Amino acid sequence: MSLLALLSLAVALHPEFVARWNEVGLSNYGVHLETVVPYTLALGLGGGLTLASARSIGASNQTSRHLRFILDAYGTLVLLILASTYGYRITATLRFVHIAINVVTALFLAGASTWLFTRVRSRANAWWLAVQLAGCVLAVVDFVNLLHVLFLAQLLIGVGFGVLMVRAVRWSES
User: In this predicted structure, what is the pLDDT of residue 148?
Assistant: First the structure.
């Protein structure tokens, strides 16, 4: 929840980054003085709390171990995105590293979301998987410069994955 609330604050402070035809991604909120604090707190708390929540899942069976792995990997990737944000506009190399981490994250989340869906099949989860995968399609469309919809892509990827993860963890605990 901290991730969503703090990113919403950053967007509220500078909605023009995403409320235009050529929208930009979330990382732009990490390089502007007015939004760097909520952005940093959002990703820092989001990544850190995800890692902490992974520890709360028992490792009593294979599904639980997989859920822990997904949470550990996601938390680590979020922290890597955060760390790579601050300098990504300085050099082409730092920009490449930042983009590469984001691409790896999107691919990981597509695979993780698909795996989560196979564990907890339902009509609602199929819808959330479709939301997540639609975000991935939009990310590719943005990446190849057909349409600049990176923020929307990131939003769909994150929300779709987040809902699937919460539903899978609740299912594994029941």
Answer: 87
